[in-house]
Amino acid sequence: MNYEIPNSYNWFAKLNLTQFIPRSFETEINPNSSINERFKIECEQNREVLTFGRRQDMDTFVGFEIKDGKVTENLVVFYPSFGQNVKGWDIIDSEHSDFFEFMQKRFLNGML
């Protein structure tokens, strides 16, 4: 797989804009994260993500969508159930076309 991370995210990470309690972003994204696998298990649409952030007080995660083995600009915000019977569970909360749209519509809105 090609794990080339979009430049919009790299810009934030290089400036150390990653820790906003209760939210945080990874400076080193782990392609083998158990949360990536959890998304794959619980998403009934046969989709994959590369998780890079979470909101600790709500068990909300965000990741770049992976299509055809490549990391895309599309972001998926999701709530895993961490349960065994996930049939009918809609893990996806929202989607955003890129990191900047996510920051504007989802992230900064929640900080006010």
Question: What's a quick, concise take on this entry?
Answer:
The chain has helices spanning 7-14, 34-42, 99-111; strands at 19-20, 23-25, 48-55, 60-67, 70-78, 92-96. With 112 residues, it is of the alpha+beta class.
List keywords for this structure.
single chain, 112 residues, alpha+beta, 6-stranded antiparallel sheet
Please give a structural write-up.
With 112 residues, the protein is α+β, with helices and mostly antiparallel strands. It is 27% helix and 31% strand. The chain has one domain. The protein has a six-stranded antiparallel β-sheet with strand order 1-2-3-4-5-6. A hairpin with a 2-residue loop joins strand 1 and strand 2. The longest helix has 13 residues. The termini are far apart. The mean pLDDT is 85.
| Mass-distribution shape | globular
The percent range for helix content is 25-40%
Count up the domains.
Answer: 1
Q: If you average the pLDDT, what whole number results?
A: 85
Strand arrangement across the biggest beta sheet: 1-2-3-4-5-6
Radius of gyration in whole Å, from Cα?
13 Å
Tally of strands:
6
SSE map:
Blueprint: H1 7-14, E1 19-20, E2 23-25, H2 34-42, E3 48-55, E4 60-67, E5 70-78, E6 92-96, H3 99-111
Antiparallel strand pairs: 1-2, 2-3, 3-4, 4-5, 5-6
